[in-house]
Amino acid sequence: MFIGRERELDSLEKLYASGKFEFAVIYGRRRVGKTALINYFIRDKKAIYFMGVESNAKQNLENFSRNILEYGMGIQADTAFLSFQAALEYVFQLAKKERLILAIDEYPYVARSSKSLASTLQLLIDKHKDNSKLMLILCGSSMSYMEDYVLAYKAPLYGRRTAQMKIQPFEFADTSRYFKNFSGEDKALIYGIVGGTPQYLLQMDDRMSIEENIKNTFFNFTSSLFEEPENLLKQEVREPALYNAIITAIATGSSRMAEISTKVGEDTSVCTAYLKNLMSLGLVRKETPYGEKASRKSIYAIDDNMFRFWYRFVPENYSIIARGAADIAYKRMEPHLPDYMGKVFEEICRQYLWKLMLEGQSPVEFGELGRWWGTNPFTRSQEEIDIMGEQDKNTALFAEYKWTNEKVDAGVLETLVKRGQLFHYEKTYLALFAKHGFTKGCEDMANKMGNVMLVTYDDILKTMEKN
Fold first, then answer.
1. CB–CB of 310/228 below 8 Å?
2. Bridge-partner residues for 432, per DSSP?
3. CA–CA separation, 175 vs 74, rounded Å?
4. pLDDT of 226-251, one tens digit each?
5. What is the CATH number of the domain that holds 449?
6. CB–CB of 434/454 below 8 Å?
7. Looking at 197-291, which runs of residues are DSSP E strands?
């Protein structure tokens, strides 16, 4: 079942409909669904699809030739073009009279084995672009390669592309639509456990309980997810051991640079370089208090739910899991799940606020959302605002979330009001998010104030799933 990617498909369809030469670059982390997107897009179109392999130029050219000749002649051929230039010239000739898509998947494998491929493509694009009906798609999982050797200013192909798409994991709305049999709360849990990466979502079964899903995947030493984070790091980086140590440090509570450096036993300069790579892979994000561009208060957090869950709960239970004691591992993990889900609920609330804003239903047209933390100048105590967004210097939104089974009371709203007063906006709007609703006192106070949104998780789910 293919879900989501409406915007990406719409963009590709518009490129295809132009009828002229188009060149789209598609890239993103492994397992994120790039190949599925391409195959779904070309399913009803005349297309040559070729996936590069991590081999030498000869094998990739033979495979490429086979795909081209099967399309051009309708037969399986054992012959091969003499060069990539000859093969690509043939494709451009095919595309002179009819609309044709050439999709080269895992392009970095091919380009690394054939050093002149990028320059050859540049030459042929410049030669044929004005009279060609070819739609060229280059796709790659190596983020650094695609950014440095395809998209960068100094790359041979710079200036030739007509579109680029960085494919991101699904947000909560799409993952929720995928699982029809899970309860509302289970949909949030599964999003918190595996995030929005399609390949990981496929490992989950909505005919089973959350407990059974965790035991069958993360707590099962024969499951692909059991070793997935470490295997992915081995594919993406040269020194996975240190990357592994850095992610573990963050997952277990070390969020500041000095703490991470101490935990892994490396200088901050070393950790900075490694963290930068992890951020480019979409595995780690750097946060600063809202409104501060550069701050010593910056912290690091894991930006992928599957990695966050795995590093939080698998390593500490590794020996137990390896002995097949999934039940014991689950019992040790289960009490910590509500606290773990707090940050996941924050992410879902942010996505909900963005949806309202983009659909014109938000009282504040913010440009970004973030978290704020700092010192209260009146009490000298540390304060934190879960979510805030500014429309202009006069108007802002402040929000608080609670993933607990108890109803949120008026005290939480009073605290949010006081924290909002640390800033000096003329107009402020407040939002409270609750897993299971609000007390009557909280509802009465919100109605009296008139600038408060009270949103339950069920409200979020209905909004997210209605489209």
1. yes
2. 400, 454
3. 39
4. 999 988 888 888 889 999 999 999 99
5. 3.40.1350.10
6. yes
7. 284-287
Please report where in the chains the tokens 């009906």 appear, as a residue: 133
Q: What is the mean pLDDT of the chain?
A: 94
List phi, psi (to 5°) of 342. -55, -50
Tokens at residue 462, please?
A: 């209905």
Residue 143 shares a structural domain with residue 213: no
Q: Which of 294, 310, 341 is the last residue of a domain?
A: 341
What residues make up the domain containing 287?
Answer: 206-341
DSSP strands (E only) in 283-343: 284-287, 299-302
Residues 120 and 31 in one domain: yes
Q: Could you read off the pLDDT of 325-363 as tens digits, one per residue?
A: 999 999 999 999 999 999 999 999 999 999 999 999 999
The reply to whether 61 and 147 lie within a common domain is yes
**Residue 13 sits in the same domain as residue 162:** yes
Residue 146 lies in a domain: yes
Would you say residue 264 lies in a domain?
yes
Residue 61, domain CATH: 3.40.50.300
What's the CA gap between 189 and 16, in Å, rounded?
38
Closest CA to 64 of 117, 119, 133: 117
Three-state DSSP class for 388?
strand
Q: Where does a domain end: 139, 166, 193?
A: 166
Phi (first) and psi of residue 169, to 5 degrees: -60, 155
pLDDT computed for residue 177 by the predictor: 86
Inter-residue contact 314 to 220 (CB < 8 Å): no
